[in-house]
Each structure stands twice: as structure tokens, then as C-alpha cells.
Write a structure and sequence with these properties.
The structure is a single chain. The chain is an alpha+beta fold and 227 residues long. The protein contains six helices and 17 strands. It folds into two domains: 177 residues, Sandwich (Jelly Rolls); 41 residues. α1 packs antiparallel against α3 and α5 runs antiparallel to α6. β12 and β13 form a beta hairpin. The strands form four sheets. Strands 1, 2, 4, 5, 6, 10, 14 and 17 form an eight-stranded antiparallel β-sheet that branches. Strands 3-7-15-12-13 form a five-stranded antiparallel β-sheet. A two-stranded antiparallel sheet has the order 8-9. The structure holds nickel (II) ion. The site of nickel (II) ion (NI) has 3 residues, from loops.
């Protein structure tokens, strides 16, 4: 499932992020890529332990916690600490690749399965040319380029690329989610059922039928979730 999360970050968040990014020191993005991805990857990243990276990551994690859409669409078990990358100049693209299936968390003690990939756009589309995130999966190929503060989630299984940035810089935050529900198909069913229930309640209020269907939602989640 590919889904946009509009307005994940507030204008205040974006303002704070751009202040932090003004003085940030970037490093080569290859340090966090697997062996196939390393060949395709040509961008920059903020070092994980820099102040800007840590504060923006904390801001994004806070926004995810408050996003009902993110929670229902991903059913998160664990979220990989967000990283920040930049495309522009001679480090301006990331060719076709699939993200590593399992990632080591920074503390080296835990691993996370990358069921879902997420990109949060920190630059506005007017600030750069190119830089589309192209995602190829069962839904066909989709090109994504969103306003600053908006995010996209897509299956970790997909082949994807970031097309060359030919003007300006594209700065984004990226991370992965291990979901309580491993299967993309099951997650999609739960998501569409939850959204339909939300709409039913808005239209008709609570009823015996919405209670029963909510029960079915939770019983499916109970059957499929691994906590
Ligand atoms: Ni990737």
C-alpha cells in the first residue's frame, strides 16, 4: 500500500528543522546502505549523532505518535530512528534498489524488519528540480514529490529510486517501520476497514452494527498481530 500522510509536520516544525539544517555538516550517504544499494546510492546524510539529526528525528517521532493515519496505516511495532538525507550538486540521486530487509538498530542489540518505508519531505518542491521518489510495486510505478511536511509510506518490498536532482537541494527524512502485521495485504484490509468504520460513525453515529464491525476489526487484528 502506498499512502500519503499530508501535513505530518507543522509549519513550526518545518521552521525549526530549517534553522537546524542551516549549520548542519553532511556526510556521504553510502555508510548506511547494503551492498547492492551502495552501488546505486549517491547522496548525503546527516551523521546520526549530530544535534540537527537528533532533534529532527525526535520531532518526526513525535509527529508520528500524534498521527492517527500513520498509526492505523502502519500498525507500528517498532520504528527505526529517522535519518536525514540530502540530494543535490554531485551527490544527487539514488538508483533503483530494494531496502535491506533487516536493519540493525543503532545500539546494535536489536534488529528491525523493514515492512514499510517512509519518506518525510523537508524541502518544498519549488526549491529543486527532479528528485522524484519513483516506487515500483504491485500497484505499478508511482512518482512521488510532495510539499514540505508531507510524508509517504510504501512497502519495503518495492524497487524504488530517487531521480537526479538537477537544481537546488532535496532534503528529506527517511525511516522504516516494523509492523505488528507483517503482510501488506492484511494491513491494507485492516486499514480500509478502519477508515470505513470511521466514515460510518461520522455519517450515522454509533450503532449496534458499528460496534459489531469494530469487534471484527479487533478480532482480525488479534489473529494477525504479532506484538
Ligand atoms: Ni531506499
Amino acid at each position: 500500500m502506498l499512502l500519503t500522510l499530508p501535513y505530518l509536520l507543522s509549519p513550526q516544525d518545518l521552521n525549526a528543522a530549517s534553522q537546524l539544517l542551516k549549520f548542519a555538516a553532511w556526510s556521504d550517504g553510502k555508510d548506511s546502505a547494503g551492498s547492492q544499494a551502495r552501488l546505486a546510492k549517491n547522496n548525503q546524510q546527516l551523521p546520526r549523532d549530530s544535534e540537527a539529526a537528533q532533534r529532527i528525528a525526535a520531532m518526526v517521532m513525535g509527529a508520528l505518535d500524534r498521527s492517527a493515519l500513520f498509526l492505523t496505516a502502519t500498525l507500528p511495532k517498532r520504528v527505526f530512528p529517522p535519518r536525514i538525507n540530502r540530494y543535490g550538486g554531485s551527490a544527487n540521486h539514488y538508483g533503483d534498489h530494494v531496502d535491506s530487509a533487516v536493519r540493525q538498530m543503532a545500539d546494535r542489540r536489536e534488529r528491525l524488519r523493514t515492512d514499510i518505508s517512509c519518506t518525510v519531505f523537508l524541502s518544498d518542491p519549488e526549491d529543486y528540480d527532479g528528485g522524484e521518489l519513483c516506487i515500483d510495486d504491485t500497484f505499478g510505478e508511482r512518482q512521488v514529490k510532495l510539499p514540505a511536511g508531507h510524508a509517504v509510506i510504501y512497502p519495503g518490498t518495492s524497487v524504488h529510486q530517487v531521480r537526479p536532482v538537477t537544481r537546488g537541494h532535496r532534503i528529506a527524512c527517511f525511516f522504516w517501520v516494523e509492523s505488528m502485521v507483517r503482510s501488506d495485504e492484511q494491513r491494507r484490509l485492516l486499514y480500509s476497514m478502519d477508515m470505513a468504520l470511521l466514515r460510518l460513525r461520522q455519517l450515522h453515529g454509533e450503532s449496534a452494527e458499528t460496534v459489531a464491525l469494530t469487534g471484527t476489526y479487533h478480532n482480525l487484528l488479534r489473529m494477525w498481530a504479532d506484538t
